[in-house]
Amino acid sequence: NQIRTPKLSDIEVIALILTAEYLNIDSERELFRRLPKRLSECIERSVYHRRKKRLFFYIESLREQMAEQMTQGENHYIIDSMPLEVCKMSRSNRSTICREDIKTSPNHGYCASQQMHFYGYKLHAVCSSAGVFKHFDLTPASVHDIHYLNDLKHLMSDCELNGDKGYLSHDVQIDLFESCNIKLHVPMRKNQNNYKELPWIMRKTRKRIETLFSQLCDQFMIRRNYAKSFKGFATRVLAKLTALTTIQW
Description:
The protein is of the alpha/beta class and 249 residues long. The protein has two domains: 10-54, no CATH class; 74-227, Nucleotidyltransferase, domain 5 (2-Layer Sandwich), CATH 3.30.420.10. It contains ten helices and six strands; from the N terminus they run H-H-H-H-H-E-E-E-E-H-E-H-E-H-H-H. Strands 1, 2, 3, 4, 5 and 6 form a six-stranded mixed sheet that branches. The longest helix has 19 residues, at 230-248.
């Protein structure tokens, strides 16, 4: 929408975004300190920041196309979620981060696997057995994991999903199977009637997505937040997921 032609094209800006994530440069200020002079003269830091958020859907399209080609013929996927803190609990009542719209505002939630209360969002993700993220979404922290399955009905079909006990619901399993032929495998609780232990291979396969979440936390520092708006926060998360997918590609 600019009158003048920018010195860096959109694809060059996207390449700069992904390269920064690959090199573990998590701060835009640090990125522009390291950029060669010939690049830093082509785009200002504030312009880079605005263009990065405007290119959200193009980056997501790039990630989807790579993931689609790498998961062709795949019919077994793993689903899980992880907490993403916006700030510490002690600052949550006075924090204004990502509160520009009530529909996308963060809130308080609880992570059972880590036994922690947190303030922020949940990252819901589906990956293949080879470790490629197929779909993902961000929800406020209070949204239960099982609600993400309603969105998957419109995105996937004719496959098998492997989840943890957070997705345990007989009605949801039947609905997924009847509406889009998705078989949801969830470990049963030991006090349930007709208890059967989940096969060993399915319990082992679930570790694939946990390894990916660990990579996002340690290598890509996904839990470190510098964003002030939800659009900026979502773009940071997407850039890290796309960088990981690009490395796999």
